[in-house]
Amino acid sequence: MRLVVQRVNKASVSVGSKLVGEIKKGLFVLVGIRKEDTEKVALELADKLVKLRIMSDRKGKMNLTVSEMNAEFLVVSQFTLLGDATGGNRPSFIQAAEPEFANKIYNLFINELKKTGTQVSTGQFGEYMNINCELDGPVTILINSKE
């Protein structure tokens, strides 16, 4: 799995003209799922994300988790995170999981986040989405299950 985690003041996702997910202060998370990812990987990365201390404390230091800030997650699947353009100008997506498997892992990841009691909003798997984000910082962290 590959996560792109961005700290935001607000973020929203729409499919066509329909709003499907939005948050105020929190983390906007793009999720790419590889063919070889497992349920164990999804659970480990969800745990890592919940414990990630990149929210600012009162002194402006990245020291708090989303739950400590009473903030939220907006999670969106994005297979293009696994695009590889090293062999040419058109990315290859052969590392990306097939949609049925990816959706299963994606939902497991989301459900694990929800178990913490933190508010979790999502995009709509497999759909073309319009995303609006107001970055905070900006703070962007990349997390990979595999180097």
TrEMBL record:
Alphabetical list of InterPro entries matching this protein: Daa-tRNA_deacyls_DTD (IPR003732), DTD-like_sf (IPR023509)
Source organism, top-level taxon: Bacteria
Annotated catalysed reactions: glycyl-tRNA(Ala) + H2O = tRNA(Ala) + glycine + H(+); a D-aminoacyl-tRNA + H2O = a tRNA + a D-alpha-amino acid + H(+)
EC category: hydrolase
Family classification: Belongs to the DTD family.
Role description: An aminoacyl-tRNA editing enzyme that deacylates mischarged D-aminoacyl-tRNAs. Also deacylates mischarged glycyl-tRNA(Ala), protecting cells against glycine mischarging by AlaRS. Acts via tRNA-based rather than protein-based catalysis; rejects L-amino acids rather than detecting D-amino acids in the active site. By recycling D-aminoacyl-tRNA to D-amino acids and free tRNA molecules, this enzyme counteracts the toxicity associated with the formation of D-aminoacyl-tRNA entities in vivo and helps enforce protein L-homochirality.
HAMAP family in the cross-refs: Deacylase_Dtd
Protein's name according to its UniProt entry: D-aminoacyl-tRNA deacylase
Organism from which the protein derives: Candidatus Woesebacteria bacterium RIFCSPHIGHO2_02_FULL_39_13
Lineage: Bacteria, Candidatus Woeseibacteriota
